[in-house]
Design brief:
Layout (H helix, E strand, L loop, with lengths): L1 H31 L6 E6 L5 E5 L10 E5 L4 E12 L4 E6 L12 E5 L13 E8 L2 E8 L3 E9 L10 H7 L4 E6 L22 H13 L4 E7 L1 H12 L6 E7 L5 H11 L4 H11 L2 H6 L24 E6 L7 H10 L4 E6 L7 H4 L1 H20 L1
Parallel strand pairs: 9-10, 9-11, 11-12, 12-13, 13-14
Antiparallel strand pairs: 1-2, 1-6, 2-5, 3-4, 3-6, 4-5, 7-8, 8-10
Helix pairs in contact: 1-6, 3-4, 5-6
Length: about 375
């Protein structure tokens, strides 16, 4: 009887441990592997001027967004919410501008915060360039500015692509800087194909360093790194490790990952998993055998990706634009990041928005905060 009771106790312990371990493996893979598209059902309304799409927290958010129709291979920009039907679970949004309405739409679309879709929609003066990297040539967009000695390098996050940074190029455009929007090794468009797994910025920064070298070779005297989400991790690493760090005069971060430990822990909590589950995820990603198994070139060094609680690690003037409503990378992480770097980091709260959708919620507010800080902090100090 005692043996049976001990066996039951042991089984009761092993079941949650096994479940937690399974969660850790799944979550570790999701963090570093590209997932499938998250399609939503959609159609045009009878008047052809609005899109009716599945209702969720993202599709009902205020602001301008885009939908991509995989059938027609076409993007459509949508704006104002005109109807939310909670019973039938759909939302209607006005197509913006009305004359851009497609002839047909659906039955499923991909929802995106990108509203420009192609470089020509952001600025006329652009060209496609190839940046030499360790693995070959990485495509990039170069937007020529009125001040060719000051360049902004726009760094996207994990499992997006460089087009997601058109919003950032648009926000910087009033300053007249030259903009470079590079790709890096985990992007699908690089040739030959490279990393199948994201390294959370740990290796990707080397490709951004190649973009920095390209900028310097083409006349950049001052460089601003602008990174969104994981692009923030990359920007911070580049500012620390670049051979040209003396030319990096500023960093702009939007919804940045400044602590992968805290970000993973927040994701686990959002999934209803205890902190121990997050700890297992982190342990797996930094273990060489598991790292190799999921296609990582090297284990993740979480200490190297930690700026929260590390006093004064950031030496370059840095602006953080972040919404308090961000659930993927909680605002509290950016607040702790600023407290760790009080002399160099400025943190500004923007209107309610989902992760890296601060621009979408209010383009004028985003642009005004960005350009004001650049003018006061970088242009004034640099003369």
């Amino acid at each position: 009887m005692l043996t049976t009771r001990r066996g039951l106790v042991g089984l009761a312990f092993l079941v949650p441990v096994a479940a937690l371990s399974g969660f850790a493996v799944v979550m570790a893979r999701k963090i570093v592997k590209r997932g499938p598209k998250d399609y939503r059902r959609a159609e045009l309304t009878d008047d052809g001027r609005r899109v009716r799409i599945d209702l969720d927290d993202y599709t009902k958010a205020q602001g301008d967004f885009g939908v991509f129709d995989p059938v027609t291979d076409r993007y459509t920009r949508v704006g104002e919410v005109t109807l939310i039907d909670e019973d039938r679970k759909y939302v209607e949004r006005r197509i913006h501008p009305p004359e851009s309405a497609p002839a047909s739409l659906g039955p499923v679309v991909d929802w995106t915060p990108d509203v420009f879709f192609e470089p020509a929609a952001v600025a006329g003066g652009f060209e496609e360039v190839q940046i030499p990297t360790d693995f070959g040539a990485a495509p990039a967009w170069l937007f020529l500015g009125q001040t060719p000695d000051t360049w902004v390098i726009h760094i996207h996050g994990s499992w997006t692509d460089r087009s997601i940074m058109f919003r950032d190029v648009h926000a910087f455009s009033p300053l007249g800087f030259t903009s470079l929007v590079p790709s890096f090794r985990s992007d699908l468009e690089v040739s030959p194909p490279q990393a199948e797994s994201s390294h959370l910025g740990q290796t990707e920064w080397r490709d951004v360093e190649s973009a920095v070298a390209y900028a310097v070779f083409h006349g950049a005297q001052r460089i601003i790194l602008s990174g969104w989400s994981m692009g923030g991790t990359i920007a911070l690493l580049t500012a620390e490790c670049s051979a040209y760090r003396d030319r990096i005069v500023g960093i702009v971060l939007v919804g940045p990952v400044t602590s992968w430990r805290k970000t993973i822990t927040a994701g686990a909590a959002r999934a209803g998993v205890p902190a121990a589950g997050a700890g297992l995820v982190i342990s797996l990603l930094q273990a060489p055998p598991f790292a190799r198994m999921i296609g990582l070139e090297e284990p993740i060094n979480f200490n190297a990706l930690e700026w929260v609680g590390v006093p004064n690690r950031v030496a370059v003037p840095t602006l953080v634009l972040h919404s308090r409503a961000d659930q993927e990378v909680p605002w509290e992480i950016s607040a702790a990041f600023q407290r760790s770097n009080p002399d160099t980091v400025t943190l500004i709260s923007l209107p309610e928005a989902h992760h890296t959708q601060e621009w979408n919620a209010s383009p004028p507010t985003f642009t005004n905060e960005l350009t004001s800080w650049i003018s006061k902090t970088i242009l004034t100090e640099q003369g």
